[in-house]
Amino acid sequence: MNVRYDIKCKVCNYVFITKVQLGYVEKANIRLGCPKCKSLIKGTIYQNAPDYSVSFENAEYGHVSAEANAEIFSLSTELPILKQTANAKNNFGFSLSPFIALTGIIPLNIFRDRYLEFRNYREKYLMSLETLIELTHNKKWDYVFSEAKNNFFPELSNNLIKNKELSFHLVSQIIRGFINKAIPTNYEHSYTIRFLYKATLTNIQKDKVVLDRLDTELNTYINVDREFVIALKICLNFIINLESYLPVIGLSYGKGFDAVFNDEFLITTFSFEELRDIYKDSFELLARASIVYIGFSNYLRNNDPNNFSDISSLSNLTEFYNMNNGNKKDIISKVPLLQKYFRSLLDSQIRNSIGHNKTEYYIVEQLIKYYPYTDLKKKDIFKEKSLVDFAYLTYLMNLCVTDLVSFIGKWNYRMGVN
């Protein structure tokens, strides 16, 4: 069912029409640009069928009325908006709903059922997950074990040694369990992790001497335990705010994980600023953690984490550590399996542009222009990315942070059990 709200922007007093396709998300963020003054309008949709309501921070609604020829803007809840159906004049009754327009793109029943399973699971266990992450941060291994056993793994033997290695393993499995309930089932089996583990951990996971050596060597450059906790908190934020990601998660069901959408779709669950901050945090973590994957990969190929001889003139990990992120990506791209895993995620041009405010965002068009070049002759050359593509990239970043949690969890488990 399409629901109409006439909205008056408090900045310029322009009145326009929004349409919302009611679905099964109980609460969804609204981030919409006023078509006249381009101000960001923030709001929330609440749905509890057959009832629904909406609230806005900086717009009036309910007692305002748009003119007959006013513009109509679609609002996304759990689904993206197919741009060709989004905005029009005086055709509210005949415009396609997102559900109808996306039937051939997203397997709607599967997507809905998996989300509802995730939501029910989160409602039951989120508080326990938050407790586990805090206990892990504070290194309370006995309590981590008790919380995990009481809420997630009742079969655990009390005779197990309650240490860091076991705790990291348990928490990583729990995080993965949450996120796997919301994303396509083919992610773990047919896309990324098989590349990652084949390039790193698979063939040495039973060699405790090697694993301990890598632990000592790599902790010279980063504090792996601290990065693990940072990754846990990023994953927790993703789990808590998953509803905002639902439009792009839906696209990953129908389009796969390498898709580029350009201006085909719109979303109104994120602002550019919100995505920018999430992207920056995930990017920096993955860039720092890339030395872990490189160290493992070097050992697998050359029996030495410092040996780059088959892919680069680098002499050791110190030189890799001191490289800027753009150059690190060049090294990663020379390791075929890691290159397939990271794909375009560590895009230093995007990161540097948004990090130094060298971007322009067109809120109504949902278009990001970024200026990636430092060369004065190129300073006015820009590249473009749609908001939905940036949201999709941020979603994939979150999945890769989840993979990092899994990787460190498995690594610690293998060090503990051998």
Task: Please give a structural write-up.
It is a single chain. The chain has 418 residues and is of the alpha+beta class. The chain folds into 2 domains: 2-101, no CATH class; 108-417, no CATH class. It has 15 helices and 13 strands. The protein has helices at 98-101, 108-137, 141-151, 164-180, 186-190, 193-199, 208-218, 224-240, 242-255, 272-302, 317-321, 325-332, 336-342, 348-355, 387-417, and strands spanning 2-9, 15-21, 27-33, 40-48, 51-56, 59-61, 71-75, 81-82, 88-89, 265-266, 359-362, 367-370, 383-386. The chain has a 5-stranded mixed sheet with strand order 6-1-2-7-9, with no helix packed on it. A 3-stranded antiparallel sheet has the order 3-4-5, with no helix packed on it. It has a 3-stranded antiparallel sheet with strand order 11-12-13. Helix 2 packs across helix 8 (224-240), helix 8 (224-240) crosses helix 15 and helix 10 packs across helix 15. The longest helix is centred in the C-terminal third of the chain and has 31 residues, at 272-302. The chain is globular and about 75 Å long. The N and C termini lie far apart (57 Å). The mean pLDDT is 88.
